[in-house]
Design goal:
heterodimer; A: alpha+beta; B: 170 residues; Arc Repressor Mutant, subunit A
């Protein structure tokens, strides 16, 4: 016969094991991302009514005269000359240098870290800077895979950190992810381990906006 | 100073919910997906989606369950799109034991050994304290299935953690 108290005890042990786990992101950060999602949702039906909901490039061009800086199978970078918005979409991560170059052409400074070795602890954390996560996308096709950057509105000296990493889910499968973060400046490296005190050098050099 | 066009009441209402629910939701997602950094990202994204649909989510009978379900659905849908399956490497299990802090690796390993649906049921039960009916609605399964999953998961966890629990008692 199963002992109910014993079962509760097991669940209590598991619950208490996570006592030190906290989500430290500020409400303003989450709300900011939520506003973006809401805006996008409001815009899409209008575009669909006009019959132009299709290729992302087409959407961007009709919506505001967006100029494509680069549009490849791996990514697209487009600039809206009216608003100054740079739209970034990442589908595959096989051309880090090309992505950096396209973003530099659009006036966005970036630094890239590539970590293709599967890890249990997810993406590394940028060292020597404050970090604000803007996007994590699974490549390809997820609705979180696009990011709008307004270079003129970002704090002076800001750099976008692009992080490619691979994680496992414990069921024998691997997930390939890309994150983009707004950094307060040029990072000195990336913490390869969630609790690792020593950052590792970056696998790709940083770029300057042109 | 307040910005025109910004619904401050909505934001404050959501921020109160977020502060009260974020740790429990993160722990549930972490327990279900097994990756700390990914859980943070998924939970934050799910909360952002909750804000985007706050009019609906705030009236949901279990908004915290909505957040966790959204985070886990995002996880699953990513997997479905990726469709990349490779053999699990023993090195991953070794890496588990190198984590210097965070939940006990034995607890994480025991959770990881459960089938996904069982992990989700356990996570909702422990960290959101949901009853069977609410858990069933959140996961879109029958209440009887929740009960069965929880019983099997608890039995498996008890077996896996028995030495650990006995050690703690001493």
């Amino acid at each position: 016969m199963i002992d109910q108290n014993e079962d509760e005890g097991v669940l209590a042990v598991i619950g208490s094991a996570f006592d030190g786990t906290h989500l430290t992101r500020e409400p303003s950060e989450v709300i900011g991302r939520g506003r973006t999602l809401r805006r996008r949702r409001r815009t899409m039906p209008v575009l669909a009514t006009l019959g132009i909901a299709g290729a992302s490039l087409s959407i961007a061009m009709v919506a505001g005269g967006t100029t494509p800086n680069s549009d490849s199978a791996a990514f697209s970078v487009s600039t809206n000359p009216r608003t100054g918005a740079v739209e970034v979409k990442i589908y595959q991560f096989n051309d880090a240098a090309g992505l950096q170059e396209a973003l530099a052409d659009a006036g966005v400074r970036t630094v890239v870290n590539v970590d293709p070795v599967p890890t249990e602890v997810g993406r590394c954390r940028w060292a020597g800077v404050t970090e604000k996560l803007r996007m994590v996308n699974p490549m390809p096709g997820d609705d979180t895979s696009e990011l709008f950057i307004y270079p003129s509105q970002d704090p002076p000296g800001s750099v976008y950190g692009i992080n490619y990493y691979v994680v496992g889910d414990g069921d024998g499968r691997l997930m390939h992810l890309v994150s983009m973060s707004l950094l307060s400046g040029e990072p000195t490296g990336c913490f390869g381990h969630f609790h690792d005190p020593s950052p590792t050098p970056l696998a790709h050099a940083s770029s300057s906006a042109r | 100073m307040r910005k025109r066009g910004v619904d401050h009441e909505r934001e404050e209402d959501f921020a109160d919910f977020y502060r009260g629910a974020r740790d429990g939701c993160l722990r549930a997602v972490y327990a279900a997906c097994g990756d700390r950094a990914l859980a943070e990202d998924l939970t934050a994204e799910a909360f952002a989606r909750a804000y985007a649909s706050w009019g609906k989510v705030s009236r949901h009978p279990a908004p915290r369950a909505w957040v966790v379900r959204t985070a886990l659905n995002t996880h699953v849908s990513w997997w479905r799109r990726r469709r990349r399956e490779v053999a699990w490497d023993d090195a991953h299990d070794e890496a588990l034991h190198e984590i210097p802090s965070g939940p006990d690796p034995r607890v994480l390993a025991a959770l990881r050994a459960l089938p996904r649906r069982q992990r989700e049921v356990v996570a909702l039960r422990i960290f959101l304290d949901l009853d069977t009916e609410t858990t069933a609605r959140a996961l879109g399964i029958a209440p009887g299935t929740v009960t069965a999953h929880l019983a099997r998961a608890t039995a498996a966890l008890r077996g896996a953690l028995a030495p650990f629990i006995e050690q703690e008692k001493v």
